[in-house]
Amino acid sequence: MIPARPRSALLAAAALAALTGCAAVDTLFGDPPPPVCPRVGVVPDAERVTRFRPGPGRDILDIRHTAEIVAVRSVCDSDFAKDGSGVTTMALAVTVAVERGPADADRRGTLAYFVATPQFYPRPEGRQTFEMAFAFEGNLGRIEVTDDPIEITLPFSAEQTGRDFEIVVGFSLTPEELAHNRSQRPADRAR
Predict the structure, then answer these.
(1) Residues 45 and 111 in one domain
(2) How far apart are CA 147 and CA 94, in angstroms?
(3) Most buried of 97, 113, 118, 143, CB within 10 angstroms?
């Protein structure tokens, strides 16, 4: 006769082995692996924007505000058809750090940014522009603002996965703002 404690340990070990076996079967016949999300990146020349007050001045005293994209968070889910094609739906949220400059009298503003999928550009769904509002409350000189998540839907063929797509984000810049960004780059990035 087996003592009570070793018997319960033996039963626990048998139950664990059975559960492990079920997990292996689930892996073979269960749900497909999680989707491979598209790569998400920020366009280097469009990751910042400096807004100046109207007029010809472009020194530090003329800055209304500067902003930088500090995070882009995303999650995705895929639906597959029997032939392997499908759709990936992605939710993406952009976070921006905004700093007041000496010429900021309004304490508020808006920033326009784009979300693009190069594989679909120049079709309209290949690039969309969004605006986010910000306001400096109290005596704050720097804030972070996260825009409402946006949803992106990417169709793919049986031969494609999320790895075959890229999502890029950046500020919508005027030619003058882009030139300013490029003039501020460190020399080693300019090459």
Answers:
(1) yes
(2) 6
(3) 113
Q: Are residues 26 and 43 in the same domain?
A: no
Same domain, 15 and 79: no
Residues of the domain holding 89: 39-190
Same domain, 157 and 89: yes
Same domain, 26 and 46: no
pLDDT per residue, tens digit, the chain (191 aa), is 444 445 554 444 454 454 444 444 444 556 655 567 899 999 999 999 999 999 998 999 999 999 999 999 999 998 888 898 888 899 999 999 999 999 999 999 999 999 999 988 888 888 999 999 999 999 999 999 999 999 998 888 888 888 889 999 999 999 999 999 999 887 645 44
174, 183 contact by CB (below 8 A): no
Within this chain, do residues 101 and 175 fall inside the same structural domain, yes or no? yes
Which residues neighbour 166 within 8 Å (Cβ) at sequence distance 6 or greater? 38, 39, 40, 41, 117, 118, 119
CA 126-129-132 angle, to 5 degrees, is 150
Same domain, 21 and 111: no
